[in-house]
Amino acid sequence: MKNIYTYLTFVLAFFAMSQVAMAQGKISGQVLSHQQQTLEGVTIGIEGTTAGAVTDAEGKFIIDHVPSGKTVLVSRSVGFSENRIQVMVKNGKSYHYRIVLKPAVTDLENVTINGGSLTRSGAGIEAIPGANHYISPEELAVFNYRDVNSVLAFVPGMNLVQEDGWGLRPNVGIRGTGSERSSKVTLMEDGILIAPAPYVAPAAYYFPSAGRMEAFEILKGASQIKYGPNTTGGALNLVSTAIPQSTTALVDLNAGSYGQKNAHVYAGTSGEQYGILVETFQQFADGFKTLPNNDNTGFAKQDYMIKGQLNTKADAKVFQSLQFKVGYNKETSQETYLGLTEEDFQLDPYQRYIASQKDEMTSEQKIYSLQHVIEPTDFMSVVTSVYRTDFARNWYKLSKVGGVSIGKILDDPSAYPTEYGYMTGATEVPADGLEVKANNRAYYSQGVQTRINAVFNTGKFKHMPEVGFRYHEDGMDRFQWSDKYSMTNMEMTKTTAGVQGVGSGNNRLENAYAFATYLQYSMEYGALSVIPGVRYESIYQVRNDYGADDPDRTGKDLSEKSNQVSVILPGVGVEYGIGQYWATFAGVHKGFSPPGSKEETNPEESVNYEVGLRTNRPMWSASATYYFNDYQNLLTSDNEGSGGAGSGDMFNGGRVHSKGVELEANGNLLYGRTTKYQLPVNFSYSYTVANFQNTFASEFEPWGDVEKGDFLPYVAPHQWALGAGFAAPKFAVNTVAKYQAAMRTVAGIGEIPAGEGTDNIFTMDLSVRYYPHAKVEIYGNWNNIMNQTYLVSRRPDGLRPNMPTSVVLGVKFRWK
Hints:
By secondary structure, the protein is mainly beta. The protein contains 7 helices and 46 strands. The longest helix has 21 residues, at 2-22.
């Protein structure tokens, strides 16, 4: 009998356990970002149980033994909003889910989450009325570009002018503002002004290394009034690598054509109350242009960065964090202002004249910033930053040949046959026949800025007021000299050493002192968002010119200039959601740029309008925007790099109308059909018309004698980019075609005369990526695959080509 009871007990227990096993299911799936990129390391859990999984390199997961009945599948990953899916698990059934995570949108911009982003890592970009743009880390990884011109070519509304082919000193404008040395955009890194002297010398021949950045933000329309001093076309914020939320490291090594060798390495970690990141970015190249004596025409650039953070516990009654950033950048490039004549460009566009063999740019930059965040309540945050940037550069470059400027010789070599012979090496050069100027300058930029954010609800209204303050100082010490050389057998020899500080306009100090404040009040009611705001700027600029004969700066020939301006800049943006997927927006704001220290120069002022429509669907997104910028007074800076005399003064351009259309579309043609493969496509198009509205004679050479209706130089009327790709779990292939219409190089109207324009530029790039392991990526980039040669610019002096075809092969190792 006992054996019978034992047997029955065993049978009943086995039956019960089998029923429990049957009362379980299996859940599998794949997790993607909102941009359809697979996400590794996402935690997937069954709420109320210990069952769970972590996604692999393909974003896939499997959870076995899920209890039957109603349950919740929870997906979590740092930087993304939590995703919750209610599921009904039936006995023995399997379920597959495709989960899309959206970036974390916090009402308050907590730096422990968002780093240096102005739009909460791109998640808030659609909440800002206007045609703004966020280039994500995933997008940057497709082509691994290190030239900011290539990165920004996908963004409609950008005005880009190439110069050296590497993007060392890019010329970036937005919506027809002018692109001279990117002086008309508010350039920031992690939300802090990064130009060496944003008020005194915005065209300062410096741009942060694009390959070091993890994201780019372009803010246009009324949304940019928070980010002066330039508030007409737009603001450009470069987001550097953020402190990781867990132990993370990257080693990215590549090499390629023209002696390219690049390395991007960083490592960081975070605990509950601390974080640290150490990073370096190294670029080297031998150059794609050739000198007759085979000297190097390349560059070497090294970036180093360290970030650290201390913070209270996340659940502290009053959350606080303190983050520091220290950066160092050094560059040595064998770059020149000396281009080519029309005839020589046709013979060999990649040659360099022998008289430029000593030309070299050296620079050194130091960056310091300290940021404090406090959240005194659950609806308010206060972010305060203290910053300092020191930048010194010396562009040692050929200035005159036989006493004649290189620009005049290149414009008409037949008028200067002796000097042209000296420059090309056809004739030996006597003592002091070549003058090489040391364009030696030191800059500083420092300040303190605070922004106070709040968010609260009253009934159906959501309120998000923000107020900000900034006190800023910057300055430039211009202390130059010229050496003179002879040349025999293609080798230059110094015959007369210059004296520092001697030379017209080359021995002076300039300083700017600026106070700015803004108030912006965002309100949401259902599908309607309204963001009115106002900015106030008060600027005092002063210049002390010690003259050509006072290198010790005793003040015996001191000339002083100063300028003071105060402005109020209102603006408002409105957006209205139409149904689930559509939204329309409009905005108007007053634009401004500082006038410089020249007394008779007025500030740049404009009234700017935009209206647009956009849609954001699971399969595709698109937008269309029309803008109109009405300048009461356009300014430009007199720099040698833009074809001027190099005084640094600002010139009045009078009334100008700039208008255009911006189109953009992105999508995955395989969305909803398969999660294993993707077929991404993207398209952007810009139409820009910028005309002078008055007749005048300008001292600025590229403008010259302007007639009403003349088009501004260096603004392409048409620009587009079309990209397509294919992505599988182990590899991806992408290609892009880019087009830029011919630009005028001198103001005018009608057909572009010979010698006064650039070429129509059409290039194609190809990218291939292979993932042999979850932590390893092997990639190759082939740029300008058709090896087309184009005239891309006639400045600084002479004709310049685009970069010829180039190939780069690399490998990335990631640890996380």
